[in-house]
Amino acid sequence: MSSTAPSDTGRQRLWSVDEHLDDIIGAVRPLEPIELQLLDAQGCVLVEDVIVPVALPPFDNSSMDGYAVRTADVAGASEEFPAVLMVVGDVAAGSGELPTVGPGEAARIMTGAPLPPGAEAVVPVEWTDGGTGGGAATAMRAASAAPEGASGEVRVRRAAEARAHVRARGSDVRAGDLALEAGTVLGPPQIALLAAIGRGTVRVRPRPRVVVMSTGSELVQPGEELAEGRIYDSNSFALTAAARDAGAIAYRVGAVGDDAETLRATIEDQLIRADLIVTTGGVSVGAYDVVKEALASAGDAEEPGSGVDFRKLAMQPGKPQGFGSIGPDHTPLMALPGNPVSSYVSFELFVRPAIRALMGLRDVRRPSVRAVLRADKALSSPAGRRQFLRGAYDPEAATVTPVGGSGSHLIAALAHADSLIVVPEEMTSAEPGAELEVVLLG
């Protein structure tokens, strides 16, 4: 891949949200397709149309446990005057040789079993005496316990129309039909269809491997003792979970201290298993912004075309961002801010689309809607910045309510939000009742 090369101009000017995203999507290339076994392909994207090779179901079969009959033999059957038929055998699912049903005959048949020759319909066992000579049956006797059930007489107490309770050959899909089209994400129903039509493998783009790491010597692993001046590392957990939610195979490295050489070495170690690297923290203008220090000069003569560009975006939260590539394979790297809300909002706006682009999906962005702002007072927004506020969206009322304040450290509010309220660059105050864009996170 390639990205906008680092430059003094690139670092100084203010990028718009759309410019930054377009640069990312323009640089990220979909992963090369591979052939995978069905279960290994779950969550992957098809790269070719799948055509049905055989009809599904491949033969006429019963949708009920009951008796396969000729319609003329049960015409006029009733409780008072049942039709008495001779049972000529059993037809179970998977049966090979089938008995022929002649006039005055019936075959006991199970759900999914092929309709035997001569039969025109299936009467459910509940419409019969089950071959017992008694009242209405509620179920068939097990073949192992009562083999005589496959012979003798059965009394049918209701008439049946032709093809009653018969699933026709090809009624699900027919040979030559398009089963799944290229670009389909394979979930459980799609895997089921592929298996049902006999596909053992499928050609897909693999799920991207995303490596996530936090930076900062103040970070402590959850579950450990929290010393003075330390905080728990939440960003690497949040972003790893978000990457998995986006469809990636995500690896959490954890916190790396404020040492540029250590960070650079850690990233290099992770390149072997990464299609995308995501860091959080250390991208602003502080003296300990280690990501910027470690990666700003990563593109050199040994790796032409690589490097990470650190930018300022016209957005809040998430102004400082980094994007580029690193390593011999030019693995994309996205450097996000360290404040929890800034980090998560940046992921949703930029990293998630990059993951979806690696997967080969056409639509990479979260869906958005227009909604009416429901708030007690106007929401202020800095001029020239696109602001993203946490919100609770009501789809029935088409309204959105702010959740928590605008601070980029307010992670508790984020946990109760299901959307992002977008206040555009030209708007410095969003009044209650204003119609705004809302990005849906669920």
Describe, in short, the structure shown.
It contains nine helices and 29 strands.
What does this structure look like?
- This protein is α/β, with parallel strands linked by helices and 442 residues long.
- The protein is 19% helix and 29% strand.
- It contains nine helices and 29 strands.
- It has helices at residues 8-12, 17-27, 71-74, 188-196, 235-246, 260-270, 290-295, 340-359, 411-415; strands at residues 14-15, 34-37, 45-46, 50-51, 61-62, 66-69, 83-91, 105-109, 121-124, 153-156, 166-167, 178-180, 201-205, 209-215, 219-220, 231-232, 249-256, 276-280, 307-313, 315-316, 320-326, 331-336, 368-373, 379-380, 386-394, 399-402, 419-423, 429-430, 435-440.
- Strands 1-19-21-22-18-14-17 form a seven-stranded mixed sheet, sandwiched between helices.
- The model is unreliable at 1-11 (pLDDT under 50).
Mean pLDDT: 90
What characterizes the major β-sheet?
A: 7 strands, mixed
Rg (C-alpha, Å): 32 Å
Number of strands: 29
Reconstruct the topology from this structure.
Blueprint: H1 8-12, E1 14-15, H2 17-27, E2 34-37, E3 45-46, E4 50-51, E5 61-62, E6 66-69, H3 71-74, E7 83-91, E8 105-109, E9 121-124, E10 153-156, E11 166-167, E12 178-180, H4 188-196, E13 201-205, E14 209-215, E15 219-220, E16 231-232, H5 235-246, E17 249-256, H6 260-270, E18 276-280, H7 290-295, E19 307-313, E20 315-316, E21 320-326, E22 331-336, H8 340-359, E23 368-373, E24 379-380, E25 386-394, E26 399-402, H9 411-415, E27 419-423, E28 429-430, E29 435-440
Parallel strand pairs: 1-19, 7-8, 14-17, 14-18, 15-16, 18-22, 20-25, 23-26
Antiparallel strand pairs: 2-13, 3-13, 4-12, 5-11, 6-8, 6-9, 7-10, 19-21, 21-22, 23-29, 24-28, 25-26, 25-27, 27-29
Helix pairs in contact: 2-8, 5-8
